[in-house]
Amino acid sequence: MHHDVQLLEYLGSFIFGTIGLGLMFVIYLINAFAWFNLGKKANLSYSILAFVPILQFFVFFGIIRKSFLWGLLYLIPGINVLAYLYFNYLFYKNFNTSDIIIILCLVFPPLGQLYMLYMAFSDDVRYVPYYNNF
Asked: Where are the domains of the chain?
């Protein structure tokens, strides 16, 4: 009897683990296709890098027209928060997003994720280069 319970526990763990991994993979694919579409809207020749987890940063920095070396600011405690706000502000501005939507997306990151998916898959959203001096 004890072995039956133990077998059910292992089986349950396997099933829920498989479902969890499958769900994570689906979420990854949705995000990868979103970054790919955003890179295509920005006319980046290397949008295919959106499917390689770490190299997605190249697509992001290509969209905001900054060298990927600026990403090193994310490694500096304190500065990384300011870098996040600044780079994401530029990201949204490059798709002609209003300031109120940008603020909401920065304050509520899950909303920002949903809005990014909208920008990627909507035909109404266009890449409009935002020029800044910094």
From this structure: 2-121
With left for phi above 0 and alpha for psi between -120 and 50, is residue 18 left, alpha or beta? alpha
Q: What is the pLDDT of residues 9-61, one digit of tens each?
A: 888 888 988 999 999 999 999 999 999 999 999 999 999 999 999 999 999 99
Distance CA 35, CA 126 (A): 14
Instruction: Check if the beta carbon of residue 91 is closer than 8 Å to that of residue 125.
Output: no
- For the segment 86-96, the average pLDDT, to the nearest whole number, is 95
Q: Give the separation between CA 45 and CA 121, rounded to whole angstroms.
A: 19
Q: How does DSSP classify residue 52?
A: S
Q: Which two tokens stand for residue 63?
A: 């969209």
Which two structure tokens, joined as six digits, stand for 48? Answer: 């295919």
User: Buried (b) or exposed (e) across 5-34, using 16+ Cβ within 10 A?
Assistant: eeeeeeeeeeeeeeeeeeeeeeeeeebbeb
For residues 112 and 34, is the Cβ–Cβ distance under 8 A?
Answer: no
Please write down the long-range contacts of 81-89, taking CB distance under 8 Å and 24 or more positions apart. Answer: 87/60, 87/61, 88/112
